[in-house]
Amino acid sequence: MKHSFFQNLGIDNHLSKTASSPDDRRKTDYLSSVSPIDGDVLAHLPVTSRPEYDHTITKLNSSFAQWRVFPSPKRGEIIRQYGLKLRKHKIDLGRLVSVEMGKSLQEGQGEVQEMIDICDFAVGLSRQLYGKTIASERPQHHMLERWHPLGIVGIISAFNFPVAVWSWNAMIALVCGNVCLWKPSEKTLLCALACQQLLQEVLDENNINYPISAVITGGKEAGQWLAADPNIRLLSATGSATMGRNVASRVGERLGKVLLELSGNNAMIITPSANQELALTAAVFGAVGTAGQRCTSTRRLIIHRSIYKDFTEKLKNAYAQLRIGNPLDKSMHIGPLIDREAVSSYHKTLDAILQQGGQFLVEGGTINPPGLEKGFYVKPVIAEISPEAEVVQNETFAPILYVMKYDTIEEAIRYQNSVNQGLSSAIMTTDVQESERFISVEGSDCGIANVNIGTSGAEIGGAFGGEKETGGGRESGSDAWKTYMRRQTITINFGDSVPLAQGIKFDI
């Protein structure tokens, strides 16, 4: 497989002519980037050594001393130019995302657009890093609240959004005056190198001769370096709940700051008053988009008993029309899973569904599209099962959708909230009381609660993240920028005496 956009993105020098088995992605001294579309080995990349990591940390600490005093609006100007660079290379970078991760061309382009959008947001933010003025109880005093950058922000990203989630963190962190160290997924290294290369071009064009962002490669060990390193003042990690627990415990040992974006097990409630065509479109895309490998993918449909049979029939008919194959073909709806391990997890979940009393409304299985026999393709599944089943409590990164009945809105919300994850949620209703109940304190316990739109996807203007085992972190918009800074309370005495707080007398 030859891809001219490698050269356009400046990463062609990372390609290797040496063949490698896709089953042996990890080597002792290098990692292999493998396309899940057809098993093609795209590149071999060296693993970062510990001395190289330490050297990078030293350079970034030195860079921080310079970048933090660079005026914030000027930092915003660098990010503005990066957004322009991304616009120029949107097609090439989006295609790389599709080739290396396996999502459709449209989704790959959409992910780069998210990067562009967060750049625009960060540019505006660069002139709005506001503090507060606070009234003092002491005469001739006033108090201020000011925000300062932290230092090095570590970013661990997952394969499913190989560029967008990094940008949510990095663009905000950089505008706030931090520098960044990125450990991308082992499965999407070329995407990370392309993003870094484009940012480096912007720095070179502005005669900034010190690094404000760097990439390290490696597996679990490299992530442990970041978690244990006191030089990493904030570690933002995206991945599984298991990974998040390990990261949080290691960072906690050194009393560091952590931002976690972990598992999702997202539900959509479909009420009797719902617009069923709208609900059907949202449910199908939410369940099968990106082959069910989004953290916001729809995993559970909680359907009112009165419309259950009718809606599930519509759902089955929609699934029968889905086309599975090469995501670079615009006529395909579903591409591959990321690798063989993901396919194995999919099959284990199908076995568990049957063992726990579930039945399939739409059967699953592995498929081999012509010419793509080395890819990782599976059929989307619909399973009818009890909401209390153990398998329903866990997230499987695959197109597996659970359907279940409810009788009252209270019961539906209880099912929605019954899992350990708390990222995204949705209700389909035209009943204002039901919608208000869903978004009230008695409703969804997730970080994202949607009414008449699906669980999948989010706009960058709002803070993104979830509760419970999703980790509690917030990225992207709103005031999520405060996570990337340290708060300082300042008291200024402009009088001639030193009155003490709370009226304390201390005469000497």
Outline the secondary-structure elements.
Elements: H1 5-8, E1 30-34, E2 41-46, H2 50-67, H3 72-88, H4 90-101, H5 105-125, E3 132-134, E4 141-149, E5 152-156, H6 164-175, E6 179-183, H7 189-205, E7 213-215, H8 220-228, E8 232-238, H9 241-253, E9 257-261, E10 266-270, H10 276-288, E11 298-304, H11 305-320, H12 340-355, E12 359-362, E13 366-367, E14 377-378, E15 381-384, E16 400-406, H13 409-416, E17 421-422, E18 424-428, H14 432-438, E19 448-451, E20 463-464, E21 467-468, E22 475-476, E23 485-493
Parallel strand pairs: 5-6, 5-8, 6-7, 8-9, 10-11, 10-18, 11-16, 15-16, 18-19
Antiparallel strand pairs: 1-2, 3-4, 4-23, 12-15, 13-14, 17-21, 20-22
Helix pairs in contact: 3-5, 3-7, 4-5, 4-7, 5-6, 8-9, 10-11
Strand order of the largest sheet: 12-15-16-11-10-18-19
End-to-end Cα distance: 82 Å
Shape: globular
Give the helix level as a range of percent.
25-40%
Number of strands: 23
The major sheet is characterized as: 7 strands, mixed
> Which percent band covers the strand fraction?
15-25%
The radius of gyration over CA amounts to 25 Å
Q: Total number of helical segments?
A: 14
List low-confidence stretches. Answer: 16-27
Helix and strand content put the structural class at alpha/beta
What integer is the average pLDDT? Answer: 94
Structural notes for this entry:
The protein has 508 residues and is an alpha/beta fold. The chain is built from 14 helices and 23 strands. The chain has helices spanning 5-8, 50-67, 72-88, 90-101, 105-125, 164-175, 189-205, 220-228, 241-253, 276-288, 305-320, 340-355, 409-416, 432-438; strands at 30-34, 41-46, 132-134, 141-149, 152-156, 179-183, 213-215, 232-238, 257-261, 266-270, 298-304, 359-362, 366-367, 377-378, 381-384, 400-406, 421-422, 424-428, 448-451, 463-464, 467-468, 475-476, 485-493. It has a 7-stranded mixed beta sheet, sandwiched between helices. The protein has a 5-stranded parallel beta sheet with strand order 7-6-5-8-9, sandwiched between helices. Strands 3-4-23 form a 3-stranded antiparallel beta sheet, with no helix packed on it. Strand 10 (266-270), helix 10 (276-288) and strand 11 (298-304) form a beta-alpha-beta unit. Helix 3 (72-88) packs across helix 7 (189-205), helix 4 packs across helix 5 and helix 10 (276-288) crosses helix 11. The longest helix is centred in the first third of the chain and has 21 residues, at 105-125. The model is unreliable at 16-27 (pLDDT under 50).
